[in-house]
Every structure is written in C-alpha cells, then in structure tokens.
Amino acid sequence: MKKITLALCAALASGAASADTILGFDASAGVWQPSYSGAIGVDDFDTDEFSLAEDNVTFLQAALEHPIPLIPNIMLAHSSIETDGSAVLNTDVTFADETFDANSEISANIDLTHTDLTLYYEILDNWVNLDLGLTARQYDGALEIVEQGVTAAVVGAPELAQETVELSGVLPMVYGMARFDLPFTGWSIIAQGNGTGYNGDTHTDITAKVRWDFMPVADFAIEAGYRVMSLDVKELDDLQSDIEIKGPYIGLNLHL
C-alpha cells in the first residue's frame, strides 16, 4: 500500500513539474474583414438587401496564465463589429415593435460590438494544447433602422418611422481552444471558439488559423485564418436575427 501511495505521489509531482512555473502572457491583435448574410427582423428581412459595408473589424485578445492549481486562467477579448447600409422594402417588414411599409427606403446600422471575459483551464500543454472554459460575452451595441424621406420638421410631412434595439446583455458561452504545434517548424494550427444554445436560440463564434513564429527570440508570431460568427436568436434584448458574419483574419501574436 505504501509503495502504491509513493508511486501516486511521484506521478502527481511529475505532472505538477511539467506545468507552468511562472506567469505566462499571450496577446493577439488583428483585423477581421467579414461579410454579412442572413436575415433580421420579425419578417426575416434578408440582410443582402441592405448591401452592408464590409468594413474591417479590430480584434484584441490577451490571456494571463499561472501555475496555481484549481484557479482558472483568465482571458479578455474585444471585437468592434459595426456596419451599415440601406434598402427599399418590397413588403411590409417589422423590426422589434415598429413596422415599415413596403416601398419605403430605410437605412440600417448594425453594431455587434462585444467584450469577452473567459475563465479556462489548460487541459494539455505540450505539442498538443487544449484549453476549456466558460465565457461571459458582454454586448455593447444596437440595431437601428430609420426610414428615409422628407423630415418631419417640414410642415405637413409625415413622421418617419424608426426603431432601435439596444444590445447590452451578458451571454454565457462555452469556450475551447486546440493548438497543434508542428515540431521544429515554428508553425502551429489553431482552432478556437465559443458557443451557446438555449430555448432554440444559438450563438457560435469560431476561428481557424495558422500561426508562424517568425521571431522566436522575441516570441513574436504572425497568424492568419478565417472567423465565422453566427447569431440565430429571438430573445436577445428583443433582437430577432439569423445572421452569419464570416471572413478572413490576420494578426500578430506575442507570447511571454
């Protein structure tokens, strides 16, 4: 029995010795150029009709890792997602509580800016890296729809319809990251994402990328890949949407 206990202690000590012994810091900054597809509004109005601008999205991420058992590592990430466009309605369309008549011209401003706070554990940490945890995603955006036309300030002009849905809720999500380091090459393959689903609503945000450690002495790397974010919801702060946002991503990484 004593031999078994000693062997178990030795195995645990060996595992602890392989863990990080100092604080680790990992940060990425990049640009995402997404396109938008899908529908928004009660009547599932096609976002393609808006010809939404495909502006660059700034993405920032920073993680702090430590060797203390049971206490999770922490990561912060921020994406500033904004776009706008206009369309002429073919039929009546309802956004939130406002109905816009057919043949009216409307403009849309979509803001899905969000910040993630993630607590995670390193499950594997060698040439195969695996992190699992939970994310709280805080949205700070809005969907704004405004009817275009003669302003109501003009005498006799009808009042223009408009609707704004504020997005300010916190959404819990599952987090996962898998990284495969190709030995002796400086290259890595990474899949990272969040996802959640409740009462028919689903929200996923997944990035697949490759990373090249082009300056190992300074711990700098360049990374490029593809990010896909889908938002199929009916109850997120009155937002009703089935939007997919996807496009290429490029950035820089620093690991200390």
Commentary on this structure:
Keywords: Signal. This is TIGR04219 family outer membrane beta-barrel protein. Residues 1-19 form the signal peptide. InterPro entries: OMP_w_GlyGly (IPR026387). The protein is mainly beta and 256 residues long. The chain has one domain: Lipocalin (Beta Barrel), CATH 2.40.128. It has one helix at residues 2-18; strands at residues 24-32, 35-40, 45-46, 57-65, 73-80, 82-88, 93-95, 98-100, 105-111, 114-125, 128-139, 141-147, 162-167, 170-182, 187-198, 201-215, 220-236, 239-255. The strands form three sheets. A ten-stranded antiparallel beta barrel has the order 1-4-5-10-11-14-15-16-17-18. A four-stranded antiparallel sheet has the order 6-9-12-13, with no helix packed on it. Strands 7-8 form a two-stranded antiparallel ribbon. The two termini are 43 Å apart. 24% of the residues are buried. Mean pLDDT is 86; it is low at 1-20.
Computed Rg: 23 Å
Report strand order across the widest sheet: 1-4-5-10-11-14-15-16-17-18
| Terminus-to-terminus distance | 43 Å
Largest sheet: 10 strands, antiparallel, barrel
Structural class: mainly beta
Q: Please trace the helix and strand order, writing H or E for each element.
A: HEEEEEEEEEEEEEEEEEE
**CATH class identity:** Mainly Beta
Percentage of residues in helical conformation: under 10%
How many strand segments?
18
Signal peptide: 1-19
InterPro entries: OMP_w_GlyGly (IPR026387)
Protein name: TIGR04219 family outer membrane beta-barrel protein
Keywords: Signal
